Amino acid sequence: MALTSGLGGQLSIDLGALARNWRALDKVSAGALTGAVVKADAYGTGITVASKALHAAGARFFFVATPDEGMAVRAAVPEAHIFVMNGLYPGAANLYIRQNLMPVLCSVEMLEEWLAKCLERNEAYPSAFHFDTGINRLGFRLNEAGFVRERIEALGYAPQMLMSHLACADQPNHEKNRTQLALFGSVMTQFQGIPASLANSAGLMSGRDYHFQMVRPGISLYGGRALVGRKNPMAAVVTLHVPILQVKEARTGETVGYGAGYSLSRDSRLAIISHGYADGFFRSLSATNSRPGGKVAIRGKLFPVIGRVSMDQVVVDITELGPDIPKPGEGAEVLGANISVDDQGDAAGTIGYEVLTSLKGRYNRNYVGDGNLPPA
């Protein structure tokens, strides 16, 4: 692939694929509302553009981690319903109210601060309540449910939604999922008539028992794998091509990269590409003679990274390409039709989530596809 604009890497984000993924998940979750998780800069795709595309596809409920992210969505989609999953930041209630953001309250301290602000202004500002059913991150403890219920009943306040989060949803048969489902059900009995949300992407795909009134997909929207051991049905959203800087010949016994941890066992042809850990290509994708690293695709074929990944460059062994030598400036595929975000994540010993959210490198961003389709 020849690069057509700019001199650096080309990061393309397919808004049409993003919209199709949301609509596909919305069909699976029929009977429940389908939100959209756009935290972490919409998983590296750009929170402003992605939020607009998801709204055009039909999403009305958005989930962010921080109030800053919430404000970005509010500016992009003024009519959005926005939940801030990290809860109420201390002293920030006025900001949430001014920006019409709903904190996902997860502690008694947060609850008291929010209720105090509601009393001060004589208005029941909306929020959600998050109960920890076994992941031990944010959330009210289960034994606090009675106190929370009594506290809000005394004031005539009701949350917009009850939430919890699955610890092992990527493994659909894990016993922890059923345990958390039962515990969440026990919380719901104490808050009759309040809508509930438990399912992330993996929970959404695991079965209707986890859907309740709203699902909140994240990774699947952006083309990543949600369930371990199953074929990923989602359309790829992100592709990344970076330029080849030089092609050179190297001899048997010569070493490649910092640390001299890779020695050539044959005469080789190497491509040096303009990409490194400063661009989100992890050092764990480095290769030694005893451990393979990552791969990139050149002219539709996969080739191994050799030696250590450096800040700005990666070396790829393209000997098997034969005499058809690439030219400087030609593109190497880091993500795309031949290598998914999950392929790179697996090779790096991490997950596609981290690959996507690390795409903050020196790229020319290009939004393609029709992300402004009207709701179906």
From TrEMBL:
<feature type="active site" description="Proton acceptor; specific for L-alanine">
    <location>
        <position position="258"/>
    </location>
</feature>
<feature type="active site" description="Proton acceptor; specific for D-alanine">
    <location>
        <position position="39"/>
    </location>
</feature>
<dbReference type="GO" id="GO:0005829">
    <property type="term" value="C:cytosol"/>
</dbReference>
<comment type="pathway">
    <text>Amino-acid biosynthesis; D-alanine biosynthesis; D-alanine from L-alanine: step 1/1.</text>
</comment>
<dbReference type="InterPro" id="IPR011079">
    <property type="entry name" value="Ala_racemase_C"/>
</dbReference>
<keyword id="KW-0663">Pyridoxal phosphate</keyword>
<keyword id="KW-0413">Isomerase</keyword>
<dbReference type="InterPro" id="IPR000821">
    <property type="entry name" value="Ala_racemase"/>
</dbReference>
<dbReference type="GO" id="GO:0008784">
    <property type="term" value="F:alanine racemase activity"/>
</dbReference>
<dbReference type="Pfam" id="PF00842">
    <property type="entry name" value="Ala_racemase_C"/>
</dbReference>
<feature type="domain" description="Alanine racemase C-terminal">
    <location>
        <begin position="237"/>
        <end position="368"/>
    </location>
</feature>
<dbReference type="InterPro" id="IPR001608">
    <property type="entry name" value="Ala_racemase_N"/>
</dbReference>
<feature type="binding site">
    <location>
        <position position="137"/>
    </location>
    <ligand>
        <name>substrate</name>
    </ligand>
</feature>
<dbReference type="InterPro" id="IPR009006">
    <property type="entry name" value="Ala_racemase/Decarboxylase_C"/>
</dbReference>
<dbReference type="Pfam" id="PF01168">
    <property type="entry name" value="Ala_racemase_N"/>
</dbReference>
<feature type="modified residue" description="N6-(pyridoxal phosphate)lysine">
    <location>
        <position position="39"/>
    </location>
</feature>
<feature type="binding site">
    <location>
        <position position="311"/>
    </location>
    <ligand>
        <name>substrate</name>
    </ligand>
</feature>
<dbReference type="GO" id="GO:0030170">
    <property type="term" value="F:pyridoxal phosphate binding"/>
</dbReference>
<dbReference type="GO" id="GO:0030632">
    <property type="term" value="P:D-alanine biosynthetic process"/>
</dbReference>
<comment type="similarity">
    <text>Belongs to the alanine racemase family.</text>
</comment>
<comment type="function">
    <text>Catalyzes the interconversion of L-alanine and D-alanine. May also act on other amino acids.</text>
</comment>
<dbReference type="InterPro" id="IPR029066">
    <property type="entry name" value="PLP-binding_barrel"/>
</dbReference>
<protein>
    <recommendedName>
        <fullName>Alanine racemase</fullName>
        <ecNumber>5.1.1.1</ecNumber>
    </recommendedName>
</protein>
